[in-house]
Amino acid sequence: xxxxxxxxxxxxxFYRAAKKQSYRSRAAIKLSQIDLxxxxxxxxxxxxxxxxxxxxxxxxxxxxxxxxxxxxxxDLATISPIKGVDILRGDFTRSEVxxxxxxxxxxxxxxxxxxxxxxxxxxxxxxxxxxxxxxxVALSFAVRALRPNGxxxxxxxxxxxxxxxxRRVGExxxxxxxxxxxxxxxxxxxxxxLAVGRL
Length: 199
Hints:
With 199 residues, the protein is an alpha/beta fold. It has a single domain (24-198), classed as Rossmann fold. The chain has helices at residues 3-10, 13-20, 27-38, 56-65, 95-105, 124-145, 162-172; strands at 46-50, 70-75, 85-89, 109-114, 146-157, 173-179, 190-198. Strands 3-2-1-4-5-7-6 form a 7-stranded mixed β-sheet, with helices on both faces.
């Protein structure tokens, strides 16, 4: 990433807002906007954050669910401790890491969320496919981990595989929609699929 990108980022109002509020990533502002608009979190929720590093989404979840809730974060990268968040180190696409997640959970989750994306190659169709592969794993995990009527939020890139994936999510939940918070760059292909009412 070049100097121009770094400079532009520092002038970005959402990046500055995240820094000002001590959030670990600009993505925290995106999740905050989604929650404020659609009511993703409820007090006392059990939340699983897949691909959580550096932890911005976990910070927002921890704030919104209150003292009685629980957040479990997992990532292959190291996540610095976050007060009130259980952190697991590992690749959530691996079955043994998912088994550890279920052991840590001990009961069905209310929310499963994933803002993860692969290292971008610059090849749009390849990046879309890789992101959808991760989203498919997250969906499969969510269907098994969520309580009935649970909620799922996952980042994908719009492209060839997006409509079929949205349909797959729709088969498992009462309602699904693609949402794009204002903190998302307008030129970015990223979109978040919000699904409620796990069937």
